[in-house]
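INSTRUCTION: Work out how this chain folds

Fields: amino acid sequence; protein backbone structure tokens

Chain under study, with its fold:
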Amino acid sequence: MGALGRLVLGKPTSQFAPRMKPRALRIRYALPLLAPDALSSVAYAPDEILLTLAAAGMAGMALSPWVGLAIAAVMAVVIASYRQTIKVYPGGGDYTVAKENLGLLAGGLVGGAAMVDSLLTVAVSVSAGAQYFAAVVPGVEDHTTAVAITLVTALTVLMLRGVKALDTTVILAVYAFIAALGVTAATGGIEALIGTLPAGPAQGLEVVPSAGLESGLTVLGAAFLGLRAFSSGAVALTGVQTISTGVGTFREPQERNAARSLAFLGIACAALLIGTLALAREVGAVFVADPATQLRYPSGKPVGADFHQEPILAQIAETVFAGARPIFVVVTGLVGLLLILAASSAFRWVPTLMSMLAHDEFMPKQFYRRSDRRVAAHGIITLGLGSAVLIYLMGASVTQLVQLYIVGVFLSFTISQLGMLRHWNAALPLAKTAPERRRMAGARAVNACGLVLTAVALVIVVITKFTHGAWISLGLVGCAFWFMVSVRRHYRRVAGELKLPPGDRTDLGLPSRVHGIVLVSAMNRATARAIAYARSTRPATLEAVTVAVDSARVWELRRGWDRARVPVTLRILDSPGREITRPLIEYITAVRRRRPRDLVMLYIPEKVVRHWWERWLHNRSAARLTSRLRHVRGVVVATVPWQLDTDPAAAE
């Protein structure tokens, strides 16, 4: 790694290197390391539910508990399904399940969805974190986009350099987040029971129904609105599958510990979601898309555009701890911190995902070496840059980004459950005992139920969110899938072309003759070494070639050539346009045309400097010439290096 790479990335570490034996942790340490993605989604899911229901006014807001219960029910089924995945594929995840049971193309589709999900995880989590940062720091609410992009940039640099204390920070932050929300819920519940719960910042404001809903909700309208709210709040399910890809983090028995942790995580997420919605209803929290036209005071006066809407959890904390501003700041800050850490988990997961895809030739093969820090850096930089672009285009709006987010999540859910169902269908006839058959049949029923629910949820999400941005997510997943299939098709085509047929010795035959050419520009030690090396290979013919771009230099070269008595013929090519590359390529092409069966061997002296910045001080014509000649058949280019010692003391 050069000086510039060390400046940006820091000293090489083992952050991305695969361990011979994965670090085995107890549940109390492994669970919080894998939990930020799932827990963070609970922080913005209530906002999306209430925002959607606000379109129908106060009547729509009354549906929020039912929507929360529906999401919790789907979450329970999904978690039960992934517990089966953990038992069967402890070292895999959605990609492995799809690849093993539905084929490589299905695995590629899941891989494309996972890549898009990683991108959107960073964009959504950081944008939500910026909103909570704005709730604590006055005057930041109008600059959330700049804050979010700054956070992404800082997070990208930190992940590139490697943060040794990141695991400890994640563990402490997860437990602090759960404790803070638990204390908030308990305090708010007690205050509500004894009647001392203060009025929320939005309590008393009336939510005006959107156009077309002034007359109230019909049964059909309420059903469609509930489905839209469900599709928005279903973002709370994102991240629950993370444990299935990190089973190796747990101590033995790994499968049982991972399954238990997944159940604990599901219970925590469902409880936090339902508790948040219940408290939001008690404090009168609202979250609407356009406060200038959809909120008004009891007097009928519209709320001004300067009214700042804080996220739901911030509104709840502000109400519950009305007389204790420091506690509100701590709770809100912990929520924002967890959201940022959830984004960091995506950065750590991307090199592993790219390595898996590269192993199956869906990504460039260099990404398979995830222990190479430069290779891992490519994935991290791509993720950071892509998420920053999304944040800028969407104005750091969590609502707009969520519309893109949940499509890929449920697509992966559905394909994974279909793969598990196919696995059980193949394994059940091979069961030898009745208890084993009953166990497999029960597991198949769980995954079948998960398939139906996730497929229905996917259809609901696509239908209700298609015009709100879901089509963009489908397009991104499609583009990622097309790219990966194209990469694999290229590797397959190259392998087929390079395959050596059995018994065919055509490619093992020697060329008729080897015509050696040494490219020279001056008679110096580097040129002498190149000529000596070329002579040692004993080609059939050997000549030195120079291009006359400067008559004075050509005269100096001829004089040095004669003085050194070089036993090789020197040929001078004219260059009316003072260009080196074209006359030389034309000459080599002419040699190949006269003797097509001959091999042309071009030797190029190369000066190797000590420092990276010195490379830019030397002519790069040799590199350009090499890149051009790679496409000419029957030509082999060999560079003969001469290591320069540019130390001034040594030069004296």
Remarks:
- DSSP finds 24 helices and seven strands in the chain.
- The chain has two domains: 3-10+29-344+374-490, 507-651.
- The radius of gyration is 32 Å.
